From TrEMBL:
Keywords: DNA-binding, Phosphoprotein, Transcription, Transcription regulation
CDD domains: LuxR_C_like (cd06170), REC_NarL-like (cd17535)
PROSITE patterns: HTH_LUXR_2 (PS50043), RESPONSE_REGULATORY (PS50110)
Domain Response regulatory: 4-120
Keyword Hydrolase attached: no
Gene source species: Ramlibacter cellulosilyticus
Sites bearing 4-aspartylphosphate, chain numbering: 55
Protein name stated in the entry: Response regulator transcription factor
UniProt xrefs under SMART domains: HTH_LUXR, REC
InterPro entries: CheY-like_superfamily, NreC/VraR/RcsB-like_REC, Sig_transdc_resp-reg_C-effctor, Sig_transdc_resp-reg_receiver, Tscrpt_reg_LuxR_C, WalR-like
Single GO MF annotation: DNA binding
UniProt domain HTH luxR-type: residue ranges: 158-223
Domain of life per record: Bacteria
Length: 225
């Protein structure tokens, strides 16, 4: 089945480029387009997209609210932010709300299809400059690296008891945080893609999250990564 893409973009030129890219790929189908946040929220239930291509700088409401609404839909979808905003706050707010990827507009139109494919295969496409800054921010927040112990499953989480994740789940989450697809992770860990998905579901349940971005953010906040 084709991947249904909802485009939320108020700039006519970018809307045209993204629409053409989706229409020209046989594996993608255009679920619709919206130029405002409220129109996008209305279309989430009506169009039931697999992927939402979202600009944060909408004329009526904050694009982050569209991400939150997308995460509340009964039919799960992936949100790929495509924005001019490259500041930490917009990026972190988007990831915390549930975005699975974050790309800057100036580098996107030529690679939008490959980014959507990467997203659907379990990857988290993030512009390199943003990824580096996020990692730097997390390292600073976590402080100096602590020496590993032989009982990593029982390590303390912010001084509040043992980690809820097993060693295997923590390893998988670290690879996910690097933006690797589930297929690549299965090869690196020597397990099947179905087992990877099963581990991911357990991680989501343990961390009370609903997306890869949320899982990485929450795990980092808890000191698990």
């Amino acid at each position: 089945m084709s991947t249904k893409v909802l485009i939320v973009e108020d700039e006519p030129e970018f809307l045209r480029r993204f629409t053409n890219a989706v229409l020209m790929d046989p594996d993608l189908a255009l679920a619709g387009s919206a130029g405002t946040g409220r129109a996008a929220i209305a279309m989430l239930e009506a169009a039931q997209p697999d992927v939402v291509l979202l600009d944060l700088g909408l004329p009526d409401i904050d694009g982050v609210e569209v991400i939150r609404q997308a995460m509340r839909q009964p039919r799960p979808c992936d949100v790929l932010v495509v924005s001019m905003f490259d500041d930490d706050q917009h990026v972190l707010d988007s990831i915390e709300a549930g975005a699975a990827g974050y790309l800057l507009k100036d580098a996107v139109p030529e690679s939008i299809v490959s980014s959507i494919r990467d997203l659907r295969h379990g990857g988290s496409p993030i512009s390199p400059g943003i990824a580096r800054r996020i990692l730097t921010r997390f390292r600073v927040a976590l402080g100096p690296a602590r020496p590993a112990t032989s009982h990593s499953q029982g390590k303390q989480v912010n001084g509040c008891g043992a980690s809820p994740l097993t060693e295997r789940e923590t390893e998988l989450l670290r690879l996910t945080a690097k933006g690797l697809s589930f297929d690549t992770i299965s090869e690196l860990m020597g397990i099947s893609p179905h087992t990877v998905v099963a581990h991911v579901r357990k991680i989501y349940r343990k961390l009370a999250v609903h997306s890869r971005g949320e899982a990485v953010y929450e795990a980092t906040q808890l000191g698990l990564l």
